[in-house]
Amino acid sequence: MLDANELKSFNDEHSKEHQRNWDHLGERLLNRGHDTEGLIEQICAFQVAIPSWALGTGGTRFGRFPSGGEPSNLRDKIKDVGILHALNKSSGAISLHIPWDIPEDYDSIRELAFGLDIKFDAVNSNTFQDQPNSVHSYKFGSLSHVDTAVRKEAIKHNKEVIDHGVQLGSKALTVWLADGSSFPGQHNFRDAFQRTLESLEEIYDHLPADWKLLVEYKPYEPNFYSMVIPDWGTSHLLASKLGDKATSLVDLGHHLPNTNIEQIVALLMHLNKLGGFHFNDSKYGDDDLTVGSIKPYQLFLIFCELVQGMEDTDNPELSWMIDASHNLKDPMEDLLQSVESIKIAYARALLVDYDSLKIAQASNDIAQSQRILQEAFRTDVRPLVMESIYRKGGALDSLTAYRAFDIRNQLIAARGIDSKSTGL
Ligand SMILES: [Mn+2]
Q: Which tens digits make up the pLDDT trace of 107-143?
């Protein structure tokens, strides 16, 4: 669907304007003492995994309005990520959801993905819904369930997810639990925590030596009174008790409004316990909005902590992933915009003069500290991000290219208007 020659002529058409913008910014950055080639290299290397479930139109509990041509099997999902990656050169990984994406043939799936320069990021288990042939129900929880038989089934499922991931070359299991209670008195908090810990210990024992277990948290939803893992403190407590291979995963949407997420990121990295990151944006809760569409400054501040943490802590390498459900936009367009926002925030964070910031902090010069951060935030880094994508052979403006190549209509023509993404 993306012809190399067409992409080249698209870029030729846009290269003059880009060159002008890049010359201007590049000179400004050089004058400010930045190593522009080093910046381009760092931005090029930054890859964000696409979750398999984000390629179809999501829905709310009130309805779903699909736009057609959705990938109805794993091969088509990988091909969609291949299109995104060909355009933006920044989506070179896919995160699978089991059982929605169980490969029928590992070899051919691996071959397809690697041919498109796509790796397999963390695999995700699912104990928040019952599967058609399941014996037990997760209605009242999974790893924390009061019934041993249900817990055993949930543990077995997580081990199977690891086994699938091993076949594909994944290196991490993400566990997000919907477990919790919706009414006071429904749960014994301490018992539910203890059962969860013991279940996770069994899963942890099944991890290969070079794997990570990412423990995700969420304050509410689907349960509305208590969640078994509601916050980073509980996630960190579990990860600490489990061992070195267990870390916390921060999902931007999984915080109560106005939580200082950048501080959480800083402290988890300080403890070498930040394992992964799920990007999205929100106004009220877990809204699943396009990354950077509501709070771009917060995203930048988070990236400042990530950049510093990657520089001066021993925190393990992070799994970066978008985690969103796109209800209104074409999912592919939303993902292109999300990845672009992530790269812009990252590029801005790379421009911060952290040495000067430390000096300003040491003398309690608050105004100067703020100025240093905002100097970077207010720099229009789009030509820098674009230059990094252009050099890797991607499109100058991925969204415009996606539309110019009429990819959604091509997908509809190939798969049909009613093609539905599995798992949604
Ligand atoms: Mn998530």
A: 999 999 999 999 999 999 999 999 988 899 999 999 9
Distance 278 CA to ligand 1 centre (A): 5
Long-range contacts of 36-40 (CB under 8 A, 24+ apart): 36/384, 39/347, 39/350, 39/351, 39/384, 40/384, 40/387, 40/388, 40/391
What's the gap between Cα 90 and its chain centre?
12
Residue 323 Cα to ligand 1 middle (Å): 5
Biggest alpha carbon–alpha carbon distance for the chain: 66
Q: Give the distance (Å) from ligand 1 centre to CA of residue 200.
A: 18
Pairing of strands 119-120, 123-124: unpaired
Note if the bond before 230 is cis, omega within 30 degrees.
no
Average pLDDT over residues 152-174: 98
Q: What is the mean pLDDT of residues 208-232?
A: 98
- Percent of the chain predicted with pLDDT > 90: 94
Cα–Cα distance measured from residue 137 to residue 125, given in angstroms and rounded to the nearest whole number: 15
Rounded to an integer, what distance in angstroms lies between the CA atom of residue 275 and that of residue 212?
8
Alpha carbon of 273 to ligand 1 centroid (Å): 17
